[in-house]
Amino acid sequence: MNAQQEYVLRTITEKNIRYVRLWFTDIVGTLKSVAVAPAELEGAFAEGIGFDGSAIQGLTRVYESDMLAIPDADTFTTVGSLEEPVAVMFCDIASRDGEPARSDPRSILKRTIDLAAEYGFTAYAHPEIEFYLFLPGSSDDVEPTPIDNASYFDYVTRSVAHGFRRDLILSLERAGISVEFSHHEIGPGQQEIDLRFADALTMADAIMTSRVIIREVALRHGVEASFMPKPLHDWPGSAMHTHFSLFEGENNAFHDASGLYGMSVTGRRFLAGLMRHAREITAVTNQHVNSYKRLWGGGEAPPYVCWGPRNQSALVRVPEYKPTKPASARLEYRALDTACNPYLAFAAILRAGLAGIIGKYELSEPAETDVLLMNDLERSVLGIESLPTSLESALGLMRQSDLVAETLGEDAFDYFLRDKRAEWVEYRSQVTPVERARFRMI
């Protein structure tokens, strides 16, 4: 037993924690949980917790069903109230012989992080998590009712959101998750929580934990939190704009004061990789049929493959940063939505950027103006392609992508495609209220 595992066991005893949750996700990012008594935790560290992996979407095949959930002591935190804390740890999934499960999303991100490390890089991420708060009891057949009619940066003392964000930040910080900003977003009832940057694996774990805490705090306030990419027809969808950077030791590999917009050659090549591979990774970063209603529904969502400084319509933005703080140099990827599996999405984005570095890609010209205001001919002249317009077209591009196949691995690649294809077929067969209203009298 290592020192961190001993620390976890000691802390659980000292704080009289009586409930331990072990977490992992399936291929699309649904959180899975198994509860163990504190007395069983030492054995879980040594041998893992056995379960039927074939019952977890996309994890393994029926004839390889016996799997192990091995808690990662480095992810230990507590959630819940101060009076009744609950211990939480994320797990790595392994086969009975101890080999990492080929389709475990957390292991897939770890493989990509290891690839970055081979080239001397450590990847960091900083997400802006958007979501809506709705009044409870709405029917699935009608649009949900937001908790308020406020908008961007509004300070509304009578809204549930005021107390909700305060309680949420306290709950996140008790769980060891640092919050940089929180505010009301553009849509009615829409919120944003920005997490302080951390390494990519820690941040993916933090996003999964944050979703749980957001939902639990919302329930305590008598409302419902939704991470649906586009829940309201007339209002912006919920994005998860994420800032990425690579470090070489203590130095930000994206920074060069003399480079274009302060970007180093490494930063420009990483960005070029994002531009070249953006279309084929979109099924991973935007994995639901509803995701494409956000991408193509306006509200500063980025449907076109371009980049630019200070350009809110670009797929990738180069944020301004203080010259005295080179560590803050970064690239903001704006296609991500809050319903993605952060492990797979981060892996795909990092792998695309690394491909640009390894392959020494040349960076295209920036888009200096709003590409949403251009017509198709203007975008074509500038060589600006569009992201997929539907999950079906995104899956078609992903199916042909060697980069995504190598990132996910053969099994996860196949599981993901089959699961998302089934989602598209089910969606395509539905008859919607819009169709009935328009065509029922034909």
UniProtKB/TrEMBL annotation:
Residues 15-98 form the GS beta-grasp domain. Keywords: ATP-binding, Ligase, Magnesium, Metal-binding, Nucleotide-binding. SUPFAM superfamilies: Glutamine synthetase, N-terminal domain, Glutamine synthetase/guanido kinase. GO terms for molecular function: ATP binding; glutamine synthetase activity; metal ion binding. Its cofactor is Mg(2+). Residues 105-442 form the GS catalytic domain. InterPro entries: Gln_synt_N (IPR008147), Gln_synt_N_sf (IPR036651), Gln_synth/guanido_kin_cat_dom (IPR014746), Gln_synth_cat_dom (IPR008146), Gln_synth_gly_rich_site (IPR027303). GO terms for biological process: glutamine biosynthetic process. Pfam families: Gln-synt_C, Gln-synt_N. Belongs to the glutamine synthetase family. This is Glutamine synthetase, type I. It comes from Actinobaculum massiliense ACS-171-V-Col2.
